[in-house]
Design goal:
Layout lengths: L8 H4 L15 H6 L6 E4 L5 E3 L7 H9 L3 E4 L6 E4 L4 E4 L1
Antiparallel strand pairs: 1-2, 1-3, 3-4, 4-5
Length: about 90
């Protein structure tokens, strides 16, 4: 399953002026359990920052599955892109 070339509505409607960003470079769920993470993603629905699918616990994907919050941005420094879990769509901003 590859990336879709057309950007979905979740990402087209992403307001780059009001993107939810994190000030803490940590996965809020890994902190609770003593886990570790590789990269972080910030949910654009509720603002929680969680670990990516390359991390052992995959908290960001689990958050989407449990809460149906599809759009996240990379919380990595100097990265400006968004991902939609529902449509497997990617957008740079």
């Amino acid at each position: 399953m590859g990336f879709k070339t057309k950007t979905c509505n979740h990402l087209q409607n992403l307001d780059v002026q009001n993107i939810k960003k994190t000030n803490n470079y940590e996965c809020s769920e890994c902190i609770k359990t003593g886990g570790s993470w590789v990269h972080l993603r910030t949910c654009q629905e509720c603002g929680v920052t969680l670990c990516c699918d390359s991390s052992p616990n995959r908290h960001a994907s689990n958050h989407y599955a449990n809460h149906n919050h599809p759009a996240v941005i990379s919380a990595e420094p100097n990265e400006k892109w968004a991902w939609c879990y529902e449509h497997k769509s990617f957008k740079k901003y």
